[in-house]
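Chapter review: from sequence to fold.
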Amino acid sequence: MASLTTMLAVLQRVSEASVTIEEQVKGRIGKGLLILLGITHSDTADDIAWLSKKLVQMRIFGDAEGKMNLALSDVGGDILLISQFTLHASTKKGNRPSFIGAARPEVAVPLYGQMISALEKELGKPIQTGEFGADMKVALVNDGPVTIVVDSRNRV
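The token string follows.
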């Protein structure tokens, strides 16, 4: 039986973004993408390969005419990647969300590390990250605003 949830990414086109942990800035970017990543127990290396390529190649930056025709590499943008298990919250019953769809750390941490590597390979430079499981304060200036949800099960 196929899982109903797969790897989710919420990407926000930003003019700047940062993540702070225990009052220390852990990562900061200027123009680029803030990516919130939700990993579930059924995610695989195939999800990472497809999603990392999709995110880096997504044409959501304005060209000379203001149309969204340019990808991250076209504008010299950066990535700030934040793990966010709450993307897999189920709100079906009651008022307290259930996070049963989110991967446990023993599954999610290695996949998060693989996603970092895959994004760096696709982008051709290091990315900025948060820290898995940490209490993070994320600040951003959403440019547009442009916010897009990408689900790895929607490949075809």
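Two observations follow directly from the output. The longest helix spans residues 105-123. The beta strands are 8-21, 24-29, 32-38, 61-62, 68-70, 78-83, 128-129, 136-151.
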